[in-house]
């Protein structure tokens, strides 16, 4: 090796060493943080829970009915640096949310990070939408946000840099044909997040919203092919999001790097206008 190649070798080694170390350090910033993810048995919630586990977090995997899937997520996390527990509970029911919190507190103590991810759709044109269709989506997508935030609120405020992260949608920004109920709940999260951000700011804790575009999960799978094609035409990056496109942003919001960011809506939508 000539002196000049040795210098290049050492420089590359140094840079790669530093960047690999800092990448690992950043990821491990969630070590020993207790993170509760609602609706973590499938889709985006599952991805978030597993990402938190990779960061060394204590992860609570909430689900409503997909018990086997939730246990699978727990096992995946426990094979890595994180520690997971499963906590069943319909976010729309306060008594079940309280049980979910009790499992969390019993296992890990206080909650540092809450991700309000659980959500449903009941799609119909407004002319055909019943009050029942409306109420069901409100109960889960907004009632669930109230219930889960309520039981974790004091913990998040008292935590060192507590985090509330709400999963909204580009549909809350744009509206969407057949989704008057769903779009209303997702817009509602903007006002909620902004207000909680103001109310928690003195405690050094933050509240932010992530508004994904259209993500390849079971939820998107229910959309007819013809409609999917129409949506795709409106996405400048010309593809639907993968779950991983969303989870990195959520992990960033959970970490220290985002300390000075609060009350914001982060659009992760392939460049869609709103
Ligand atoms: P998904 O694949 O349908 O998964 C939904 C998850 O939420 C499941 O784990 C489900 O658990 C859980 N869940 C549903 N109702 C619940 C309840 N009442 N209590 C507790 N858990 C409940 O949905 P996703 O696509 O991952 O969506 C996750 C979030 O991202 C939602 O808030 C959605 O609005 C939002 N989002 C999705 C997209 C998209 O294109 N996929 C785009 C923007 C925003 P069980 O199976 O156990 O019921």
Notes on the protein architecture:
There is one protein chain. The protein has 274 residues and is of the alpha/beta class. It has 2 domains: 1-27; 31-268, Rossmann fold, CATH 3.40.50. Helices cover 52% and strands 13% of the residues. It has 10 helices and 7 strands. The chain has helices spanning 3-27, 43-54, 67-78, 94-108, 131-158, 171-174, 180-200, 218-221, 225-233, 243-254; strands at 34-37, 58-63, 83-88, 113-116, 163-167, 206-212, 265-268. A 7-stranded parallel beta sheet has the order 3-2-1-4-5-6-7, sandwiched between helices. Strand 4 (113-116), helix 5 and strand 5 form a beta-alpha-beta unit. Helix 2 runs parallel beside helix 3 (67-78). The longest helix is centred in the middle third of the chain and has 28 residues, at 131-158. The chain is globular, with a radius of gyration of 20 Å. Bound molecules: NADP nicotinamide-adenine-dinucleotide phosphate. NADP nicotinamide-adenine-dinucleotide phosphate (NAP) binds at residues 38-39, 41-45, 62-66, 90-92, 117-120, 140, 144, 167, 169, 212, 214-215, 217-220. NADP nicotinamide-adenine-dinucleotide phosphate (NAP) is lined by residues 38-39, 41-45, 62-66, 90-92, 117-120, 140, 144, 167, 169, 212, 214-215, 217-220.
């Amino acid at each position: 090796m000539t002196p000049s190649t040795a210098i290049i070798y050492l420089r590359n080694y140094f840079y790669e060493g530093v960047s690999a170390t800092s990448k690992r350090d950043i990821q491990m910033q969630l070590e020993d943080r207790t993170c509760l993810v609602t609706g973590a048995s499938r889709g985006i919630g599952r991805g978030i829970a597993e990402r938190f586990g990779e960061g060394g977090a204590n992860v609570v995997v909430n689900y409503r009915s997909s018990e086997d899937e939730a246990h699978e997520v727990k096992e995946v996390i426990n094979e890595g640096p994180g520690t997971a527990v499963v906590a069943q509970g319909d976010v729309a029911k306060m008594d079940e949310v309280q049980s979910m919190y009790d499992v969390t507190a019993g296992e890990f103590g206080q909650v540092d990070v809450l991700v309000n991810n659980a959500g449903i759709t009941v799609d119909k044109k407004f002319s055909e939408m019943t009050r029942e269709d409306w109420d069901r989506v409100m109960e889960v997508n907004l009632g669930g946000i109230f219930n889960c935030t309520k039981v974790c609120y004091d913990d998040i405020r008292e935590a060192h840099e507590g985090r509330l992260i709400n999963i909204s949608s580009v549909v809350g920004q744009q509206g969407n044909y057949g989704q008057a109920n769903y779009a209303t709940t997702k817009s509602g999260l903007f006002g909620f997040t902004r207000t909680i951000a103001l109310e928690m700011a003195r405690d050094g804790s933050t509240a932010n919203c992530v508004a994904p575009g259209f993500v390849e999960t079971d939820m998107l799978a229910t959309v007819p092919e013809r409609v999917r094609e129409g949506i795709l035409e409106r996405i400048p990056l010309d593809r639907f999001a993968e779950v991983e496109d969303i989870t990195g942003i959520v992990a960033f919001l959970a970490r220290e790097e985002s300390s000075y960011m609060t009350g914001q809506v982060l659009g992760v939508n392939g460049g869609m206008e709103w």
